[in-house]
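**Paired protein data**
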Amino acid sequence: MQSNTARLLKEAEQIFTENISPFWLSKMVDDEHGGFYGRITGEGEIFPDAPKGAVLNARILWTFAAAYRIFGEESYLIAARRAKEYLLKHFYDITDGGIYWMLDYTGKPLETKKQIYAQGFAIYGLSEYYRATSDNEAIECAKAIFFDIEKHSFDKLGNGYLEAFTKNWQPIADMRLSEKDENVEKTMNTHLHILEPYTNLYRVWKNEKLKHQLQNLIELFLDKIINPDNYHLNLFFDMDWTDKSEIISYGHDIEASWLLYEAALVLGDEKILKRVKELIPHIIEASLEGFQPDNSMIYEKEENSGDEDRDRHWWVQAETVVGLLNHYQLYNDINSLNKAIACFDYIKNNLQDKENGDWFWSIRSDGTVNRSDDKAGIWKCPYHNSRMCFEIMERFGRE
């Protein structure tokens, strides 16, 4: 097993340093208008006048801050600083607080709504920048956004977090994160990506309110979001947590399995950690319903009809590798290690664009490469695949 994990460690480092980071550092920097370009197509065409999304910028910030913390390379610090400064100068709303959803290519606000998912990623990136640099401006802004989320989004009566608001934090008719989502008050996806930054923020800021809300988020997953009948995550809810879900998302299932463990570990509550550890094998087993003979994970399934989206999305494969490695390390489950390595090899052989850099959006169900969807854009960012590499390096002892 040591030889297998040593190979995984070596190749994960190579994928980040030779495939992922060169793409983002050489092709995405907008020297004319600042920050980073908003879009590169699957065919490699740069759109200099594409809108710039908050999630993309915050994920670039997280990625290169984490890369600098791990590698100490100056180029990663420069990229992270660029992302942090652009976020604070252009995305941060100095009047009402929080992060705008979208800017035009010059940096002017285009969509000023306060999507809580985006606020979470801003905290994730800023807290990681603080971990890497001890930059006070970054941590203070992360704290401010935390308090904005708690003030405006937290449902004090029904628990959990509401999806979205107007610029000045008023109710908004269309709360959806994307067109494929249900227009409901509460979603698994937003809660997962508040859990993630709250965990990272608590690493560096041992605030009692943050601790309480982090514990509450973990318990929401255990008590409301994880389906006790099948251990998949329910995706959509109304105000009183009535389940409105019809889709099984295999990638979110397996991503949640390790993010919940990480959150419980950072929280440091033994009772919560025990509850999470007891559930992880069940979540892994449920998620592996989507694992295929070619060692990839399909995207999702419609529960009532049984219809499947069998595309192999880049982010789902990355989270599958980490989730399986986490399960292996917790339970010494060799089958999970073997599946993780096999999925890692699937990524190398199919999703990794060895000619132009980074990864393709997906491999279609017929085995062809999907070049119709973006290589970089509002949703296609260097975060899932970079984080897979970093998790492998940190879990298996990069020197």
